[in-house]
Design a protein that fits this description.
Largest sheet: 2 strands, antiparallel
Structural class: mainly alpha
Oligomer: single chain
Strand order of the largest sheet: 1-4
Shape: globular
Strand content: 5-15%
Distance between the termini: 31 Å
Helix content: 25-40%
Number of strands: 12
Amino acid sequence: MKSIKRIFTYAIVLTFLSSCGDDFLEIDVVDSITEDNFYQTDEQLLAGANSLYGQSFFTTNDKFMYSLDMLAGNSIGFESDAPWRLFSVGVNNGVLLEGWEGFYKGIADANQLLKVVSQPLSEEISDDVRNQVEGEARFVRAFSYFYLVRLWGEIPVIDEVTSDTSSLYPLNTVSSIYAFIENDLQKAAELLPTSSAGSIRVGKTAAWSYLAEMYLTLKDYDKARDYAQMVIDSGIHSLQPNYQDQFINPSASVNGEGIYRWVWTSINGLWGIQNTNQAYLIASDDVIGNDGSFGSVSPSIDLFQSFDKVTDAGEEDLRRQWIICEPGRFYPELLTSQGGWTFPENGDDSATRLRYRKYVVGSLDEHPDVFFMRTNMSTQLMRYADVLLIYAEAIMGNADSTGDAAAVDAFNQIRRRAGLSEKGMITRESLMDERRIEFAFEAGKFWLDLVRMDRSTARSIISSQDRGTVNTLVPFNVESLFIDSIDDDDFLLPIPSAELSFIDTASPAVDYVIND
């Protein structure tokens, strides 16, 4: 599984989603596609970019993203997942390689499309669509590198398709990688159209949102605020009335709150185009209607208790029952053939007696196209909720708190939807607590928040997390586990061993020079 080498010898042998625009629901399997025999119309070129909305990242979505929540202290898995929970992920970890491969697969697909649109195209292809596809490719390439640089630090920047594998690929400096990401996102913002609410394809607001997050990560708060403000002022996106709308019903998972998502197609017998997450979350075959309920990962006891940090006395966070299966909670929308499903008062047999409700769809009785390890539930990557909290944090800047009216209003929009009281002042701690709940089990966001914090604060948060197991919920009986020592190296992942023979890790990283 030598993914770096495959990036450079990558041929366009993809399963393209056949129709253009926002219809990703039916597929047509096409083999041995090349730019010479396929891209003849607007519809075909758009179909060529459809893999950027899911299929390219299948291995990343499968287990890697939820493993980041184990690093963050939100989740706990099987014994084989212990390295993620205990900060001992090694170079031979299979899930580590899958995550790396998925991001570089997205880069390879983006580079192939950029090669295509840089050459003369059929007269049937319009300039608008050519520009749109270039914008989509640049956006997804930037998205991929933004994850890679935060998770791994110094990595090789690959900006073209080439068959030359005669030399090792150098590591590039973190600062130059960010300059490359910035360049791609800015060009994407220029090229992409203004998308409509609920569009599957990304538009300018996607590039602006990730520019805002990138500048926030780099502590350039003025630019982060400005780009978040552009998304807000566009009027395109808004919060869904109910938090759960985008996480439990595939048909509702493409909506106006979503800004970038991976969209999956579930077909019995086809692999690599579906969302597999449900299989890893629920341990009851009855609930999902097939024998693909492995229950590999469950919420940590620390996440379960963290809701207390965002609620005032007497309040109930409406998100909680949709993020975690609450003990004793009746869910009428699951196991409908038997009138609904109640999660046991004392939980089940997971390490923490708990299960995730988020991203659990149910069975064929509730939604079409649910098969063994297959649903068409979208994976949310950037939502309007994220933009609002980026905006609030950017206004806060380097301060420990803010009472700025615009920041407080953005923050309170999230709390109002959760059924919580509004605040007149935001502290950095309260904002991070809110982000942890809002984005629990979502795109590794809490781990990325910890990575961008100053190390002493991040260490303090991690060392106070109970990463232990639960014997019983009633009475509450926990075998606690705390991480006593976290080194700076623990905040970056190792490059997978399968890639090391293609990368020059012995030499100092060099600046990447932007070629366009």
